[in-house]
Structure formats: C-alpha cells, structure tokens
Write a structure and sequence with these properties.
heterodimer; A: 490 residues; mainly alpha; B: 172 residues; alpha+beta; four-stranded antiparallel beta sheet
Chain lengths: 490, 172
C-alpha cells in the first residue's frame, strides 16, 4: 500500500531525479569534516527565526503606541510568549555568530576562489542582510534603546554630504522618530529583508549545486582557471560520495547541538527587554546597542573627531568592496590557510579588533557615570583627618559632578583619570590650571567655580597620594630659586 | 505570411510581431505600476514636513539664570504615534526675555543630553560629549555645540519653531 503510494508520487513528481540533483548530489569525501557544518548551521538558525518570527507576529502590534504594551503582553501574559521571544533573540545572536564562523571558514579554506566567485558574493550580501535583520529587529523591540538607536542611525545618515537630510527623512518616514518610522522598520524586518534573504539563499544554494562544494584544500595545490573544473569533476567521478546520506551526519549533529544551545540560552537568560517605554521625555537613559553593534558603538567613541565622518561613511564602503571583490583580485592559486599567512593574520586581526571593541563597548569607559556624583560616596580614608578646607574640597568633588568622569577608590566614571593619586602627577599650579581651563577631554570649570572653591578643591586634591609617594614637584622650581637669589658679584 | 525585413534580414513572422507587441505592452504596464509604487516609497525622500511655532509654556515657568527641561508636542502627529510626539528640549533663561532653547539630541549621534545644574554642564551618556551651559562644545567627540531651536516670546509665552529631528545636515 505504502509502496504503491510512493510509486504513484514518484511517477508524478520524479522525486528520485530531484533527490539526485539536490540532497543526494555527489561531493568530495574530504568535505566530510567538522569545518563544513557552519553553512547548514546558519540555515538552521534562519529557519528557526522564521518560525519564531511568525509566532511573534501573531501577537506583536507594529504601532508606536501599542508595540511596547504588546511586548509586555508577550512577556507576561501570552502562554510561552517570553520563551518564544527569548528563542528569537538568541536565535539571532547565534545566527550572526555561526554566520561569522562560516565566513571565516570559507575565507581560510579559499572557497571564494575560482569558480565560486558568485557563491562568495551572494554570501557576503546575505551577511549584510542578516546584520540588517539584527538592526531592524532591535528597532521592533520598540523601547528606549530602540528609540535612541534610531536617533543614532538618523545622526549617521545626517552626516552624508548633500543628501543627508533627505536620507534622514527617508529612514524615519518623516521629520521625527514616530509611528511611521516603526511601520517602515516592521516592513523591512518582516517582508523586504527576509524576502531578499530567501532569494539570495536560493542563489547561494543553487551555486553550491552547480559549482560544487569546495574540497578540503591541500597545501601546495594551485587553482588555475584552465584545469580546476576538470580536476574537480574527476575527483567527483572517482571518489565522490552522495551528500545524503554519507556527509550530512555531522551537519545534523551540529544543528541539533545548536538548537539545544539556543533553547538553553533562551531558558537561562530569557528574552531581551523591552527596556523603558519609547517616551522621548524619559531622558534618564543610556542607550546601548545589541551585542553585534557594540564594536561600532565603541569605535564611535574612540575615533578622533576629525576623521569620524570620513571613517563612518567611507570605511564601511571600502571594507565591503575589499571583501566582496576578494575573488576577483585573488581568485586563483593557493587555497590552504597553511600556506596563506596573510589571510590568517587578517582573520586574527579582525577577530581581535572586533572582540576588543565589543569588550570595551560592554562597559563603555568613555561614558560619564551620570549618578556617580550623588551615588558614590567619597572613600572614608580620603576624608579622615583632613582640614576643614580640604573637606570642603571633597564636597566640591562630589557636588560639581567631578566623580561622573573621575573615579575615587575605583568607583565613578572612567572618562578622566582616577583621582586617587592625582597629587603624585600634578603640582598645585597644574591642578589649578587644569580645573579652570580644562583641556583635551575635560571641560573648563573657570566660570562655575569661585576662587575660594578652586582653592578648596585643589587643597583636597593635594592630599590624594599614598603616604609612601612624594607629591609631584615642579622641575623648574630649583632653577627659579637660584634666579630669585642670584649669587652676589664682586 | 513571411516577409523579409529589409533592415536586419530576419523574417518578420506573426509570432515575432506578437512577442514584440506583448513585451512592449508589458513594459508599459510595468511603468503604470512601477512609477506610482516608486513615488509612494520615496515620497519621504524629498518631503520636508512643515515646521511651525509651538508654545513651550508661560515665561514664569523658567526662572532667570536657570536651565529647565520643557516638553512640547510635535506640530505634526498621527494618532498611532504614542508618546513619540512628546519632544523634550532644554530651555535656558539667560535673563528677562533672553532665552536659549537647545535640542535634547547630542550633536555627536543624537543621544539625549542631561543638564547638571551644579557644574552647569550638559553631559551625554553615549560617548561622553560635554557642553557648556550656553550650548557650546566643552569636550568629547561632538563636532559642534548643541542644536538651538529658533524661538520667540509672544503673549507671555515662549514659542519655538519645532517639528524636526536635528541632525548635522539639518540643524533645525
């Protein structure tokens, strides 16, 4: 009975032929490797995102006035709503992470070389689309971070010469961040970008079938346009094995682990946000992007102001061009990373740079700690046994918000240097000048402090040094003493 | 029915002509849909919403020599905007009828700056930009001082020209 149904379907759908041309296509046996599981892993994440995304869209309301309450409803009232939100969030984090691994692996294995240029290019665009999904998804979580995140996006757009203002209007669908903006990002996140991803993914997979999967590269083997395809075909003919069932095992195991990891993270850490409601008048907020954009957030604080606009607008374009055009200027020759030291160094540098910037971004040492002046008390040891004048200075350090940028006893802002040992670095005169005139990253306080207040402040700061270290000394002091008291001439 | 096309030497058949006609009609149909769709999508690209004068509140809400947070409703709203129409700004009353009204957005990347009365500074929580009480740049990455709304005093009320998110290319 079952057999006859199968045969009936086969007769109409030609399933065997379809299988041989797709899942059962022959691949080089060398690709049966744990390094080849990241592509299918990314695909799995994408499918998971579609399923959970559709579920969330059943409840979510894409309206500026209702989005936030509907997220609260999902978190607290909808059965399993919080869990699905968490899976969607962790699915996106894993998708970006696994996709990055896929990119690094194909780069190091020379998979972008002839004749797989288009596979690489479509993959790069897919990577961009995925980051686009990450950003637009962050906006749909329409909370304070999303609101000010849109402000940051608009500010970047506003730096584009000539058409900056128009681009801002196009992005926001109006002159301010409001209801129309959210509708716009909902459309992008739910229709436009997923549609592009599905189209590009079809192309990407079609290319994997037509041009074959990259063999595990042998060090010393050179790719040439004349011989490569012929040799690849021969390998397939001689030793090729069907992807299903011979090679898919490792993909299946990795994918299963991936699902377990995503669900575990979702259960342990729960959904992300929403943070406070998207009300612009609630200004006591410190907006921060999701983790994939932390490196960007960090670099925007650390770049010198004069090259900021240039790097913000041009560096991504140049970087992307270098990445996407890679197979066109490095399309033949050695594939194995064992013989491509520059490629290995590039990957290491890129990972280190992104990692360090993301690490810095998580605690943002460049941001003032807005509550330190009123919330972080002066350490007791710094006020013990001080004179009245010095204590007055200690009060000023708190009251004038110095602590927002300067820490004492490890607590407070990190924007400026810690003040615990300031007296070993600056003399009294230097402190007065620094407080009154400011410099570099410090505002000038000359207008906001009376001469008496400056005296008190500096008197306190002069006590800030360990007892075993001498205070900073003016190196010109001895010379001046000599000049003031010249030797008598006879 | 086959005639010789004298220009390219290819036979002009009925099928060939129908194909050309069909393709042409479809190109026309494409334009009929495509142009309005494109116009609809990019309409925001060029359209600038009209700015208009909005009242912040009566003058006596702002003590002389002080800086206070004020909130106004954006002149253009939609009923589904929620709270996003409520736009905050900083009002500094220098003296009597001399005011400065600053946008809440940092000139670096648009985060909301906070006023610190004691040190008379605006600080930004995102990348550490700092501005003096007159809005000028004090330190950090911002490329210029705070954005200032055009304002006027009318009938005992402070009014500003609102309606735009300020950016470097369109600073109010």
């Amino acid at each position: 009975m079952l057999r006859s149904v199968a045969l009936w379907l086969e007769e109409r759908l030609h399933l065997t032929k379809l299988f041989e041309a797709t899942a059962g296509h022959k691949v080089p046996p060398s690709t049966n490797s744990w390094f080849y599981v990241f592509g299918s892993g990314t695909l799995l994440c994408f499918v998971l995102q579609i399923i959970t995304g559709i579920c969330l869209a059943l409840v979510y309301v894409p309206s500026a006035s209702e989005a936030w309450p509907s997220l609260q409803y999902l978190n607290h009232q909808q059965f399993l709503g919080a869990f699905l939100r968490a899976v969607h969030n962790w699915g996106s984090i894993f998708m970006v992470a696994i996709m990055s691994l896929h990119l690094v692996q194909t780069f190091l294995f020379g998979a972008y070389k002839y004749p797989r240029e288009l596979t690489w290019v479509s993959g790069c665009v897919l990577f961009l689309c995925t980051l686009g999904m990450a950003f637009t998804g962050q906006v749909l979580r329409f909370d304070q971070d999303a609101y000010w995140g849109l402000g940051i996006g608009a500010s970047i757009m506003g730096r584009v010469p000539f058409i900056g203002a128009q681009l801002v209007h196009l992005m926001l669908a109006g002159s301010i961040i409001a209801g129309a903006t959210l509708s716009r990002f909902f459309t992008l996140h739910v229709f436009v970008v997923p549609g592009m991803i599905i189209a590009l993914l079809s192309l990407h997979l079609r290319l994997v079938l037509t041009k074959g999967i990259n063999e595990y590269p042998k060090p010393g083997y050179m790719v040439t346009k004349e011989s490569y395809e012929k040799e690849y075909e021969e390998t397939i003919k001689k030793t090729g094995v069907p992807f299903v069932p011979n090679v898919i095992g490792k993909d299946l195991i990795f994918s299963a682990f991936l699902v377990v990891a995503i669900v575990t993270c979702a259960l342990v850490f729960g959904p992300a946000g929403p943070s406070g409601p998207p009300n612009p008048t609630l200004i006591h907020t410190a907006p921060k992007p999701d983790f994939y954009f932390l490196p960007v957030y960090a670099i925007l604080a650390l770049l010198p102001a004069y090259m900021e606009t240039f790097l913000l607008l041009l560096a991504p374009v140049i970087g992307l061009a270098v990445l996407i055009l890679l197979p066109f200027y490095s399309g033949t020759g050695e594939k194995s990373f064992r013989k491509r030291p520059v490629a290995v160094v590039v990957v290491m540098l890129a990972v280190l740079t992104a990692g360090i910037l993301a690490y810095l971004g998580t605690f943002a040492p460049w941001s003032p700690h807005m509550d330190a002046w009123s919330g972080a008390p002066t350490p007791v040891t710094y006020v013990k046994g001080r004179t009245g004048l010095e204590l007055q200075g200690a009060l000023l350090i708190q009251g004038k918000q110095c602590r927002n940028c300067h820490s004492l006893g490890g607590v407070g802002g990190k924007r400026g240097p810690a003040l615990d040992t300031v007296a070993t670095r600056l003399t009294r005169d230097e402190m007065i000048r620094q407080v009154i005139q400011g410099s570099g990253n410090m505002p000038a306080y000359g207008k906001n402090l009376s001469p008496g207040e400056v005296t008190a402040l500096v008197a306190f700061m002069e006590t800030l040094r360990p007892s075993y270290q001498p205070p900073a000394r003016d190196a010109t002091e001895s010379v001046r003493l000599v000049q003031a008291d010249p030797p008598v001439r006879r | 029915m086959i005639e010789q096309d004298c220009k390219c030497g290819r036979p002009v058949s009925r099928r060939n002509a129908l194909l050309k006609l069909g393709a042409g009609l479809n190109a026309l149909a494409g334009l009929l849909i495509g142009v309005p769709v494109l116009g609809y999508v990019v309409s925001a690209f060029s359209k600038r919403s009209p700015q208009s004068w909005v009242s912040l509140s009566s003058l006596n809400r702002f003590p002389e020599g002080e800086t206070r947070l004020a909130v106004f409703r954006n002149p253009v709203t939609k009923s589904w905007d929620g709270d996003t129409d409520e736009i905050p700004c900083w009002v500094r009353r220098v003296e009597a009828e001399s005011f400065q009204v600053f946008a809440i957005n940092c000139t670096h990347l648009g985060c909301p700056v906070r006023w610190f009365q004691q040190s008379r500074l605006f600080m930004c929580p995102c990348h550490g930009g700092v501005f003096y009480e007159d809005g000028s740049h004090a330190s950090g990455p911002p490329p210029r001082g705070l954005f200032e709304y055009p304002h006027k005093v009318e009938g005992g009320e402070l009014k500003i020209l609102g309606g735009n998110l300020p950016t470097l290319s369109e600073p109010l």
